[in-house]
Amino acid sequence: LGMDLRYDLRCMTYLRHMQEVELPSILVDGEAPYHTDVRAGYRQAQRLLESKRRFTAVICGNDLMAIGAMRAFREQGRRIPEDVSVMGFDGITLGSYLSPSLTTMAVDAKAFGEKAFELLYTSMTQNKVGVHQSELTLWENESTGPCP
Predict the structure, then answer these.
(1) In sequence order, which residues have a C-beta less than 8 Å from that of residue 130 and are 6 or more positions away?
(2) Residue 82 half-sphere exposure, CB side, CA atoms within 13 Å?
């Protein structure tokens, strides 16, 4: 939900894998400027619900959007994860305090920040541009379950 489809590596990887396993996908893209907070997740989930398309799971652009989406689904009587699984990205601590707790792809924020600083410093001092791809860890919690 709510990703800029042209540039988001997460989205491109998702689409590629969905094609590989021959499963249909539904993408709800946000409108510029791309807001990625709780309210944006809530609005995008409402758009998905209003579309009347059938779905059993959503992967949100980040954990905050997943929290908003979970609220919208519950307000419409959807049970998480029995009716719809919800997953986020980032691994924020708040997700583990929700009920149900949020499944997420977590990134080591400290290592990510150190690498970002290193790339920025190298760019400023040596006029070199670098790229880094962070390792992610699946935190499988209560917001995902078997497909109904």
Answers:
(1) 118, 119, 122, 123
(2) 4
